[in-house]
Amino acid sequence: MLNIVLFEPEIPPNTGNIIRLCANTGFNLHLIEPLGFPWDDKRLRRAGLDYHEFTRVSRHADYAAFLAAENPQRLFALTTKGTPAHSAVSYQTGDYLLFGPETRGLPADILDALPAQQKIRIPMQAQSRSMNLSNAVSVVVYEAWRQLDYAGALIKA
């Protein structure tokens, strides 16, 4: 399956919602610290309901530790500075989808290290700055899963 990577997430309900999303799709979740909240935050638990036990969550001390532990072969960063749309990518099992923190996005050094075709964006209206993190993750996850014919789903398309 695919991997969702949250770089220094700040808002517990967003992360909780993404935990629940991963439980429902079979995607793995990677959290790159520092987190903007304690891991036992009640808002994180409330948003994720009882889905925490059904999600593979890996925590990494920093971005370098994530790269060393996972050695991602295909990593796509979601950014408003990206050119290809998220739907223009041909996703493959094992891909990593990297999302930045809610208030600032991914740092320039991470984006600069990736080729242009791996910096992707979700289309939106010109006057919009960005989407809510858990909504953005959902949009991309379901497009990737659709391309993989909803692998592992109870009902396929």
H/E element sequence = EHEHEHEEHEH
Q: What is the strand tally?
A: 6
| Helix share bin | 25-40%
Major sheet? 6 strands, parallel
Structure description:
This protein is of the alpha/beta class and 157 residues long. The protein has a single domain, classed as SPOUT methyltransferase, trefoil knot domain (Alpha/beta knot). The protein contains 5 helices and 6 strands. The chain has a 6-stranded parallel sheet. Helix 1 (12-25) packs parallel to helix 2 (42-48) and helix 1 (12-25) packs parallel to helix 5 (133-147). It starts with a strand and ends in a 10-residue tail after the last helix.
Q: Nutshell version of this structure?
A:
This protein has 157 residues and is α/β, with parallel strands linked by helices. It has helices at residues 12-25, 42-48, 63-70, 108-112, 133-147; strands spanning 3-7, 28-32, 57-60, 75-78, 96-99, 119-120.
